[in-house]
Design a protein that fits this description.
This protein is mainly beta. The strands form two sheets. Strands 2, 4, 5, 6, 9, 10 and 11 form a seven-stranded mixed beta sheet that branches. The protein has a four-stranded antiparallel beta sheet with strand order 1-3-8-7, with no helix packed on it. A hairpin with an 8-residue loop joins strand 9 and strand 10.
Length: about 120
Amino acid sequence: QVQLVESEGGLVQAGGSLRLSCAASGRTFSTYEMGWFRQAPGKEREFVASINTSGGSTSYADSVKGRFTISRDNAKNTGYLQMNSLKPEDTAVYYCAARLPVFNTYHYWGRGTQVTVSS
């Protein structure tokens, strides 16, 4: 199993940047794909970005492409989401998640962290 803990989010002004981290327990972190999701008030949780086990392949939602960067450091058992050029519509609770590559769904989730972007 994997336990995931997101770093504290925060309040930033539009146009600003924020980096989230996701610390994973266990020595098998490198065998899990990682993803970031978010949920805004009154909306369903949506996919933000994902990264494969080695970090060599990434995928992004169209809404964040070119602004957000997902990465991972397997030696540190940590994943990251660098968010630049933030917009008020990026305001949401952000969750990191992990899955084994053989599965289509994410089985392990962090508790989430609030990111608020002011206009």
